[in-house]
Design goal:
Strands 8-18-14-9-11-10 form a six-stranded mixed beta sheet. Strands 1, 5, 15, 16 and 17 form a five-stranded mixed beta sheet that branches. A three-stranded antiparallel beta sheet has the order 3-2-4, with no helix packed on it. By secondary structure, the chain is α+β, with helices and mostly antiparallel strands. Strand 2 and strand 3 form a beta hairpin.
Length: about 350
């Protein structure tokens, strides 16, 4: 005899199972996600202590209770404690989601609960991925913002650092753009401070990209690149253009904040140049979920669970992430712009 399983009995899915399910779903890669720029690292606490020494930000490690403490050098250092932002996002499966629906490619069967749950988790994962992209692109600039666009932390202000910038002066036809590019490269190389890299990428706004490739000192190089390397009749040549040691990439992304307002991730007529292939410069720290069973465990990128309502009307699907992106060498990301 086959028992009929009540689809609103949530006892069959544990926190661990739901969390594993949302974390193994195919990731809808955002640009920084594709680059793998920010390495994820779990922490066991809901706040982290970051110290600054010679312009480099480092997370202080945890030690066993009663164990030896880390010892600071006698260099001038400053330390700050940062709370890891908590980002919950909920949804629900209601009878209307299941009743009368057919499974894909199945004529008689109702859409199974597992399929609906996967659809919910996929949409929720996408929203978390977009939020993480927004936080990480701002962390490149040395700032942490939440999904409402509110500045949580400014690492430059917190640690008394200043952002590096190079004015490309694109409005002047005689500007030597190669000299400007070399200036950016030298600033990045100087600030590596023991790090490694395998190249420099500049994410720029459409306005900056158009003015760059149309500049008198660049136009011929771009024409040669687009005619020999990218086959412009078949490919979109707007996106990437290597020039004098930097790959310039048009990054035309706009997000809708939780307030309903929109924000462009790269400021018009500007861009950010930063190194690729670093080992420990760009890190997103993840804290445990705000749950009893995850206390003192290593944080994961996101968590998911389901709770059946007592009146049987729905299953609440709850997800959360606690992430703090950190650019450990804030001066490595060079702001590029044009004053005319």
């Amino acid at each position: 005899m086959n028992l009929v399983i009540n689809p609103f009995d949530a006892s069959g899915y544990t926190l661990a199972e739901m969390t594993q399910a949302i974390n193994i779903l195919p990731n809808v890669y955002t640009r920084l996600g594709q680059l793998g720029l920010f390495r994820f690292e779990g922490v066991t606490q809901r706040s982290v202590i970051i110290e600054q020494a010679e312009g480099v930000l480092n997370l202080l490690p945890t030690v066993p209770l009663g164990g030896p403490a880390t010892v600071a050098n006698r260099d001038t250092r400053s330390m700050r404690s940062f709370t890891v932002p908590w980002i919950p996002h909920d949804d629900a499966i209601t009878p209307q989601d299941i009743q009368g629906g057919r499974g894909f490619g199945v004529a008689d069967a109702a859409d199974p609960l597992a399929t609906i749950m996967e659809r919910k988790l996929t949409r929720m994962r996408v929203k978390h991925a977009q939020t993480r992209e927004y936080m990480e692109i701002n962390a490149l600039k040395g700032i942490v913002k939440d999904g409402a666009g509110t500045t949580l932390y400014n690492y430059f202000t917190e640690f008394g650092l200043s952002q590096q910038a190079v004015d490309f002066v694109l409005g002047t036809g005689t500007t030597n753009i190669q000299t400007k590019v070399r200036e950016v490269l030298r600033k990045v190389e100087t600030e590596l401070r023991g790090e490694t890299m395998n190249g420099v990428l500049a994410m720029v706004s459409p306005e900056f990209f158009d003015r760059l490739i149309g500049h008198a000192k660049v136009e011929d190089a771009y024409k040669y690149f687009s005619s020999t390397g990218a086959q412009p009749l078949r490919e979109d040549t707007r996106r990437r253009f290597p020039f004098a040691g930097i790959v310039f990439e048009e990054y035309n992304a706009t997000v809708t904040l939780s307030t309903g307002a929109t924000e462009t991730l790269v400021t018009a007529s500007e861009g950010m140049a930063f190194p690729l292939g670093t080992l420990d410069t760009f890190v997103t720290y993840g804290a445990p979920a705000n749950l009893i069973e995850t206390v003192n465990t290593m944080g994961l990128p996101m968590y998911a669970r389901q709770l059946a309502r007592q009146d049987g009307t729905a299953i609440d699907v709850k997800t959360e992430a606690s992430i703090l992106p950190v650019n450990k060498r804030p001066r490595l990301a060079v702001r590029i712009h044009s004053s005319n």
